Amino acid sequence: MPDSLQTQTQTVLDLARIRSEFPSLGKDCVFFDNAGGSQVLKRVADRIHAYLLSTSVQIGASYQASQQASEKVLAARRSVAELMNAAHDEEIVMGGSSTGLMFLLTQAILPGIFPGDEIIITNSDHESNIGAWMRLQKAGAIIKIWEVNDDFTLPLDQLDRLLSPRTKWVAMTHASNVLGTVNPVAEVAARAHAAGARLCVDGVAYAAHRLVDVQASGADMYVFSFYKVYGPHYAVLWGKREFLLSLPTLNHDFIGADDLPYKLQPGNVNFELSYGCIGISDYFIQIGTELGAQGGNRQRMQLAFEHFAQHEDKLSSKLLAFLRDKSSVRIIGFDHVKNSNRMPTISFVVEGKQSEEIVRFLDKHNIGIRFGDFYARRLIETLNLLPHGGVVRVSLAHYNTEQEVDLLIEKLELALLA
How many CB atoms lie within 10 A of CB 219? Predict the structure, then answer.
C-alpha cells in the first residue's frame, strides 16, 4: 500500500482523546449513521468560524484582507491535494456535493461522447455515480451494467466481457455504501486502461475509513464528500491534470481552458467551507504524530488510518458475530471481517419484519441508525430487498466505542423480539 508504514498496529486508540475532537459525541445520541454523515471536527468548525469573522471577502483583489482570504482558499486546495495524494493541487475541483460534482463532470465530458460509445457502470453504486452517466445516453452512449455477484463482489471476469474497443468510461464505487465491500479499483483501472477506457471512482464510503491515494488507485477521476469524512457539507472531485485540461470550461466563456480548477467550478468554491476542510487533514496528521509516526504528513495520516481501521474492524467483528448468531437475520454483505475486505458499514434484514420497525425501535433509545436504499436503489432492487423496505444499516466510525456497540446489541436483541 503506497505511503503505508506496512506495520501491524496493535496500539489501542485513546478514544477519550479521539472523542474530544468531536463536540457532538457523548450527548443525547449514539451515532451509528456515520455513512450518512459523520460528526464534525471542532477544528473544522473553528476554521469556518474564523474565516467568516476575519476574511469573509471576495478573493482575488489587491487589498490585504482579500489577499489573506485568497491564500486561505489556496491553502485549503493544497491540503485536500495532500489528503488525496494528488500530483498537482490544480487537480482538485471542489463543490457542493458528490452528486453535483458528478453532474458537472459528465456535462464537461458530454461533447466528447458519440453514438456507440460505451460506458460501464455497476448496479452497486450510489446513484450519484450512476445517474450522471446514464444522462449520456442522450448523446448516443451505450450503458453496460456490471452486476454484483452472489458473494457481494463485482467479478472481474464479467468486467473483461463488458470491456470493448468502444468503451470510454468505467464508473464504480471504491466501497459500497450498503454492502461495505471494498472493490479492487487498481486492478479495474489496469483493465480499463488496457482497453483504452478511463475509470471514475466514487470514494464516498471509503474515504472516512482508509487514506485515499488517487495515484495508487489508478483512477482518472475520484470523488468523495467531506461531510462523510468529519468535515462540512462539501465535496471534492479529483482528476488527472492532462485530462482536466482537455475538458471544455463550465464557467464563463472567457475563463481559459488552462485555468484549473476554476473552469470546472461555476461561480467559484465556497470559501469558508473550503478553508474548514484543512482541519480534516490537520486532525489525521496530529493523531498520526501522537501515535509515533515518522516521516511526512502522508505517513502520519497513514498511521492514523491504520489504527482507525484496526479499531473499526474490532467493533464490526463484534456486531457481525451477534448478527450471525440470529437465525432471523440476513447480513447483506460479507459476514466476517477479513484482510480489510469490508468497511464498518453493516446492513441486514430481519425475517418477518420491516427494516423501518427495527430502526424506529432503536430511535426510542436514542441510537441513530437508518433504513432504506441509501440511493443504491438498483442494488436493493437486484437483491430483492424492497419488500423489507430496504435494509437496516449500522455504520460505524473510529470514534465509536465498544460500550456503544454493546448498547446497540442489547437494544437490537429487544428489537428482534418485539
Answer: 28
pLDDT at position 6 over 80 = no
| Closest by CA position to 202, among listed 62, 297, 97, 74 | 97
What is the rounded average pLDDT of the residues 171-182? 98
What is the distance of C-alpha 213 from the center of its chain? 13
Q: What angle, 0 to 180 degrees and rounded to 10, lies between the N-to-C axes of helices 355-363 and 402-417?
A: 120
pLDDT at 127: 96
Query: Can you tell me the distance from the alpha carbon of 222 to that of 164, in angstroms, rounded to the nearest whole number?
Result: 23
pLDDT at 112 over 70: yes
Q: Kindly report the CATH number that applies to the domain delimited by 15-40+297-417.
A: 3.90.1150.10
- Domain 45-280 indexed as CATH 3.40.640.10: yes
Torsion angles phi and psi, residue 26, rounded to 5: 80, 15
What amino acid is encoded at 349 in this protein?
V
In sequence order, the β-bridge partners of residue 393 are 347, 370
pLDDT at 11: 64
